[in-house]
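During the reporting period the student researcher (J.K.) took over the structure-prediction task from the postdoctoral fellow and processed the backlog of single-chain submissions. One of the processed entries is reproduced below for the supervisory committee.
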Amino acid sequence: MTATLTAAAPARPTPPSTPGRRRALLALARFESVRMLRHPLTVAAALLFLGPWLWGSLSGSANRYPVLPDELITIQLLALPILGGSALIVANLATLRAHRHHVDASYDVLVLPPAWRVGGFLLALLPLVGLSLLLVGVRVGVSAALPGAAGSVDLATLLTPSALTLLLGAVGVLAGVLIRSVLIAPLVVLLVLVLEFLVITPLIIQTGWRFLLPIYVSEFTVPVPAGVSDRPAARHLAYLIGITVLLAAAVLARANARRQVVAAGLVVGLILAVGGGLTQSRPDPGLAAARATVEDRAASIQSCEIRGDVTYCFFEGFGGFVPGWDAVVTSVRAVVPASAASSGPPLAVRQRSSLDAITAAGWTEPIAEDRRMVAGWKVEDAAAGTPEAVLVSTAWGDDRAAASLAAEVAYRLMAAKAYDGGNFLCGARAALLVWLVGRASPTTLAGMRSLDETSTGALVFSDISGLYGILAPDRAAAPALELLERQSPEVPPLVERHWAELTAPDTPLERFGAIFGVPIQPLAPDDDAPPCVP
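J.K. obtained the following structure tokens:
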């Protein structure tokens, strides 16, 4: 009994060493990362991110001519709410697991203090980042492998969706340590969706502080040549990483981490966030000169490819579009008389971009400005050895773009010169042009019908590029569309026999109706004749 009373009291357990805590931290991170990866929301997000794209690729409805810089921006717009939103909710649920199961007090007996535990939750986000990079890499890799792909892949832009996933995951952990409610994460995801909606509005796109949002889009509504779009991808990536580091520092500070660790995180985060945020809005001094070159001196920076007797000239990176252009040109030439297919200067197609006309503000140049611009392009084409070159824009891949190019080629073969822009194409040759476009191929026919559904007063052969297009009045398009419906084998011989008459500028529309036996809508007494192309 005496021995028992006089025995020394057992020593208090010593706290685990830093290496021991580090091993426990890594074990916790591995455990939580596995749970996050196999969470049903993570699996659903991966399927939602890849599923529609895979279906489009397998069914043939996906764009076979992706422009990779624009494709990466589209992927960012999808990754932010899908991959980032799922990471936010899953990380928040993991952080709140002890609170949700009412075992907070039991955590006090663990070898890891609170700061190390939340550090484990932050490290567990890295496999989600890796999964995001893998999913994005699959989409970008397949798109880049397509023969018609244009542009190049920027590494910083490729890494941005993964940075967004990490950023929103850190937001989920921070929300978990600040507010003990699982309702906060879905509300934050809803806020992210609102911010993404703001990103794509013209009011935001045209402002300099648009780069301070998680993602940014081009100020142009269609693809543009390299070097003319203000896309500070590397600086924006640094900005996102800086914000993520600041969030991680806030999480650790809330969990009473050591001051040195929190201070280091704040310093690094501020340097990256402030430095990246300020420098990404700095205008590029060479941007104005590059844009002027693209608009006014495109031939000086373009490459050309000859297929048969046709020359195709394109901006750097857009060479994959040439087979698609050539298919349209060949199909149109196949439905015109052999003499017309070789009339005028050697046929050439040159890619053009009017940057002022394709900004998100939706500004459209007046007809007089269009014609002045086209006149300058024609002078440049002649000097470059491709006189009367047919215009094609940087937008390509859908039926409407094919129909617009087919109309430009048809006019070039009918008039032995390229379209001058502005005004209507009137008389019999307007109806003939519509028939040629519809007759060329099923693709151009489908594109023309789609254009007709969205046109008012005239069938406008113009793609989404904002460049001028050929306008065929509805009164002239109607008989040609009816003629296409008939699919009579007698029509092509009649076209060849009356080609010179049908392509003459002064041949009236009524003569087209008489030749092919289709009704022509009479002009109402109060109808004003549209200004026609001479």
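The committee noted the following: The CA atoms of residues 229 and 443 lie 31 Å apart.
J.K. will present the remaining backlog at the next meeting.
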